[in-house]
Design goal:
Length: about 170
């Protein structure tokens, strides 16, 4: 059995050759399925604008089903759904108005300046508190590989131990 091409938009697979793939990708059903997929991720403001321009689909609102589905030229949104979209758009616009750099967000230059002013002077090592590590009395340094031996000034001066690491 040869290679198969799976189209996630259409939820089907077929033989993977250039002609079959071209034919599938140019089909109306694939184009519709792809558009429907990306319409799920549209901005609420755009959806609201589009749905307000359409008239309600009578069949969908009375029966609850429409033969055209998402491709219907009429709106399938009920008034409560439209109100919810308006509420989402208003909340989004309100958040844009309230969080301007002047009102809510700190200036990045101020953050950097504050960071460097509050850091410890690295030249004065007396102020630094190094963490202390607990070492079990059962573990002896000789049992450990050289890369895990504790660092001492003598071990740094003696570079011959580094040859044992590799």
């Amino acid at each position: 059995m040869g290679k198969r091409y799976y189209c996630a938009y259409c939820d089907r697979s077929f033989k993977d050759d250039t002609e079959a793939r071209k034919k599938h990708l140019s089909s109306l059903q694939h184009a519709k399925n792809r558009a429907d997929h990306y319409n799920m991720y549209k901005d609420p403001e755009i959806i609201l604008k589009e749905e307000c321009a359409k008239t309600p689909c009578k069949r969908f609102l009375t029966i609850g089903d429409c033969a055209f589905g998402l491709g219907c030229r009429f709106s399938h949104y009920s008034p409560p759904m439209i109100w919810e979209l308006q509420r989402l758009v208003n909340m989004k616009n309100q958040s844009r108005l309230h969080f301007t750099p002047e009102n809510g967000w700190p200036n990045p230059d101020d953050i950097i300046k504050e960071y460097f002013e509050s850091t410890v002077n690295l030249n004065n090592t007396d102020e630094l508190n190094y963490p202390t590590w607990y070492k079990s009395s059962e573990i002896q340094d000789a049992m450990l590989p050289p890369s895990l031996w504790p660092i001492t000034p003598e071990s740094l001066a003696n570079t011959s131990t580094f040859k044992e690491w590799g």
